[in-house]
Amino acid sequence: MKLYGIPLSGHTHRVELFLHLLQLPHEYVRVDLANGEHKQAAFLAKNAFGEIPVLEDGDVTLADSHAILVYLAARYDVSGLWLPREAVAAAQVQRWLAIAAGKIAGGPATARLVNVFGAQRNLVAAQTMATQLFGVMEQELQQRPWLAGEHPTIADVACYSYIAHAPEGGVSLKPYAKLRAWLDAIRALPGFVPMPVTPVGLATEEM
Q: Judging by DSSP bridges, how do beta strands 60-63 and 54-57 pair with one another?
């Protein structure tokens, strides 16, 4: 199994984290984004959009971090807990995957993109979206320990990386006790691996 990505990519980290939580042996292949490797023919054959991460598992090649999480859970999680099949539980997981692709991507992930990579985005708008999101998550995590229920699922894996690194985008986690407890619970899972911290924004104070 091969995972193509870079250490500072939250999208890549989602997959790396889940591979470790499932204890699945794999090779981490770093993609040279700076020199445009992801836009060359060899990589475009793996993902026509030229984006990371990409997972190769035998004759299966998959792009999109959420699609990869679904694949890994469906194929390798013998417990069936990471991707529940019961209708309501499955819908709750899907809800958070959508939030990860929407409000998390537009909020804390975008704010971090500005500070870490110098992307030309609206930093204030991204920070505002992040704080609004965190307020909702704080309320929901008062009702249950995990995003989609009473045990961790791929919803938690999908949402973790960019929220944990929100301080890099200048978004404080200090006001959200339940959210920070949820992050700590993920870090306590057997097999957890961190994403490297970039000392920008509030990261030197909060991470």
A: antiparallel
Q: Please choose, from the candidates 28, 66, 83, the residue with its C-alpha nearest in 3D space to the C-alpha of residue 160.
A: 66
CA-to-CA distance for 182 and 38, rounded, in angstroms?
34
Chain segment 59-116, per-residue pLDDT in tens: 999 999 999 999 999 999 999 999 999 999 999 999 999 999 999 999 999 999 999 9
Q: Which residues contact 121 (CB under 8 A, 6 or more apart)?
A: 110, 113, 114
> Per the omega criterion (within 30 degrees of 0), is the bond before 199 cis?
no
By three-state DSSP, how is residue 3 classified? strand
Q: Residue 5's closest CA among 161, 170, 121, 166? A: 161
DSSP 171-196: ---TT-HHHHHHHHHHHTSTT--PPP
41: exposed, middle or buried (Cβ count in 10 Å: 0-12, 13-18, 19+)? exposed
Question: CA 131 to CA 4: how far, in whole Å?
Answer: 31
Q: What is the pTM of this model?
A: 0.96
* Contact (CB, 8 A) for 100 and 70: no
